[in-house]
Design brief:
about 130 residues, mainly alpha, two-stranded antiparallel ribbon, about 5% strand, globular
Length: about 130
């Protein structure tokens, strides 16, 4: 069985073969599982009006810094399409590189056998909450 982490480091339209996951798969699974649980919690909470104002301010700043681009949707003028710019993508790639370095440092305290066992256990948990990757 494969999960998202397997697909990310492997093949397919969303794969990033240039990124060596190495021993970081277990920690990536922890992060993904935590994010899933956080989304589940957030889904059960109502969005408060003040949050929309904060979101607008964040988007304004990201656009001013050239990290995103907003455009009016051609089919619905009430809708704005947000895309990540090349500068934004570069920032994301640098942040991902830093995160991977952190993962490698944390993984260094575990043996290969410990990392593999942890990754296998976390894969089972992710598949239980997300389902198997297609």
């Amino acid at each position: 069985m494969l999960d998202f982490i397997d697909r990310f480091g492997g093949e397919g339209p969303r794969s990033r073969p240039e990124i060596d996951l190495g021993g970081a798969a277990g920690l990536l699974r922890v992060m993904r599982l935590a994010a899933f649980l956080e989304r589940e919690l957030a889904a059960s909470c109502a969005v408060k009006p003040g949050q929309f104002q904060v979101l607008t301010a964040v988007l304004d700043r990201l656009e001013e810094e050239g990290l995103i681009r907003r455009a009016i949707d051609s089919e619905d003028r009430r809708t704005r399409r947000i895309t990540i710019t090349e500068k934004g993508r570069s920032l994301i790639d640098r942040a991902l590189g830093q995160r991977m370095a952190q993962h490698r440092a944390l993984n260094a305290v575990l043996t290969l056998e410990e990392r593999e066992a942890l990754s296998d256990i976390l894969r089972k948990l992710l598949i239980a909450v997300e389902g198997e990757a297609a």
